[in-house]
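Long-time lurker. I teach an intro course on protein structure, and each term I like to show students one example going from raw sequence to a predicted 3D structure in token notation. This year I'd like something fresh instead of my usual example. Would anyone be willing to generate the tokens for the chain below so I can use it in lecture? Attribution to the forum is fine with me.
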Amino acid sequence: MSDSVRDSIRDSIRDSSGDSSGDSSGASMRADAAGEAAPSRAGRWSAMLDRLATTGRLGVGEAAELLGVSEATIRRDFAELVRRQLATRNHGGVVATSVAYELPYRYRSTQRDDARTRVAAAAAALVQPGQVVGLNGGTTTTATARALASREDLAEGGETTIVTNALNIATEAVLRPHVQCVSLGGVARPESYEVTGPLAILVLQQLWLDVAIVGVNGLTAREGATCRHEDEAAIIRAMIERSKSVICVATGDKIGVRTFASISPASRLDDLVTTHGADADEIAALRAAGVRVHVV
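-- Reply from a regular --
Happy to contribute to a lecture. Here you go:
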């Protein structure tokens, strides 16, 4: 699920207000009759990837009926998926590429992660070309890695380095010619594809990062950033210690929440990118602690 899925993150931001330019009036009528708007390009691509992951093949007519858009729109979508190496052209449709669907469903884009996509795009925009970026595992950091790797200005501005303990992020990042990927060693957690343990920390202690983009399970001004597992917390702490600046990415439901393992005090975070709906009092307290808060 590598090269093309990451690019779809950029398109989901571009098309977040809806992509109806390629749809016929009949498609719009079908969507209206169903009581909902036609999906954006990102939404269509996500639905196609999910169907391909299940069936291995998707036809033009089947996709048009599934998504409520015109066959002309589907053909353009198929052409883009093929161009981005996510699917292979087949008579009357597309088939799944052999390496595109091997990661768990939790790491595939869905039509329900608009909030995570907004956070990812905003966090990726804070990175400068040529920087060394640390990323721990998780759905929001995975989306951020994709958004970061798809930035055209980074490709033009010199090699950007991604250092990660997440196998799925490394698998995707390594396919980008303008991204140098450093994958940490260690013991892999099957539920998150993160590697942890002393080997990963030993490697991190030999590196310097310009920015660490960290996902957390909870963040409060009082208890700081926390996650559910101590071994994951240790990796994130090591990333933070080796970084000039730290960006925390967390959707609004994680703000004001404290979980089991402490990562760092809130004052160690330079930026927080979160979503509307986060607890207003907690946001104010985080800003008072010196955190620059970006609500998207």
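Some talking points for your students: The chain is about 40% helix and 20% strand. Confidence is low (pLDDT under 50) at residues 1-36, 99-108.
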